[in-house]
Prior knowledge:
Blueprint: H1 3-6, H2 12-26, H3 28-41, H4 47-71, H5 77-97, H6 101-126, H7 131-177, H8 201-221, H9 224-230, H10 235-259, H11 265-283, H12 289-305, H13 310-317, H14 327-349, H15 353-371
Helix pairs in contact: 2-6, 2-7, 3-4, 3-7, 4-6, 4-14, 5-6, 5-7, 7-10, 8-13, 8-14, 8-15, 9-10, 10-12, 11-12, 11-15, 14-15
Amino acid sequence: MNVSAAAPRQPLAAWLPIVVLGVGAGCISGLQPLLLDLLLKAGKLDVAAMGLAATAEAAGMAIAVTLAALCLPLQNLRKWALLALCAMALANTGTIFGSGGAIIALRFLNGLGAGVLLWVLVGMLARAPDPARLFAIYVTAQSVLGLCLSQAISGLVAPDFGHVGAYGLLLGLNALMLLAVPAMVDGFDAAAQGSRGLPGLRAVIVLLAMTAFLAGIMGLWVYLLPLLGAGGFAPDTAASAVSVGLAAQIAGGLLAALVGAHIGARTAWIAGIALAIGAIALMNGGGSAFLMLAGAALFGFVWIFVPPFHMPAVLAVDPSGRGAMLVGTAQLSGTVIGPLVAAPVVTAQGVSAVWTLSAAWLALSLALLAAAQFHKTPEERIPS
């Protein structure tokens, strides 16, 4: 069954609340360097625990989106969204007062709530006639929100209120997201549900390539401020790299939306890997602040430019939609595995080892993407 072909077209008003909830749930990943650094400065976490907290949050998201995709029909969505937002609000409130292991557990809870909202979003995207463009619009909106929040946190909230103000701001975002719940679609017709279950081997290889790509991105991003500090950059300059990277994400999303229907998934993916490795070289080259900021911008650009092409890539080898429903799982698993593997590496070899580790993940993504091309009929090959 071709899920995209089977999905009925819905009016914008029916899809927009789901996108809004997905944007609110997904924007936290880009804010991790700022949020975790505030917890570090407050003495709530040490450097190694920063990676564990990021891993726990991403793990909660990956577990929730995976179990929901495999086990739940896309019905009663308003109920699931309300429960998810309550979990996120509880987690953000607890993070203000907690420390150490309690914060790690609370970030896992927040990830569970966000994962449920992303499951609904992925279900919508998998049934869209142009998933690359819609995903690009989603990640662009997510980047805009992330940039606004980063500026608010670093420029307005953190100087006077620290982590309390930052997580209080996220709590306010959770309250605003509640307004979208009554307007969202409560379920999909049975004909548009698609197939649940595990995809075939080729789709699995493509999904693993997604995981490796996001592991390389997120494993570096959560340590960006300590990495730049170790490279000799002043704290204000390093903090500017986060804002520059988030701003460049908007450009990446907009370009993906513009060219999504005109460029092959494999071509975009391979180009993104090459650019990301170049960005690592710029940030770690020991050059000027200008070159470092250019690398941060390029890294943020690639982060958002490539993922919109993930779903078309897996749909090309698995039109049934089983692989497409696991795109969120693959991407979130990468955001889990990247910081998880980086944490012991940082402990054993120092934070600077993360540069090499990130490049290795990106190279693995390229190798898996190439492997997914072997032994296929022309109709099954990922468009390039």
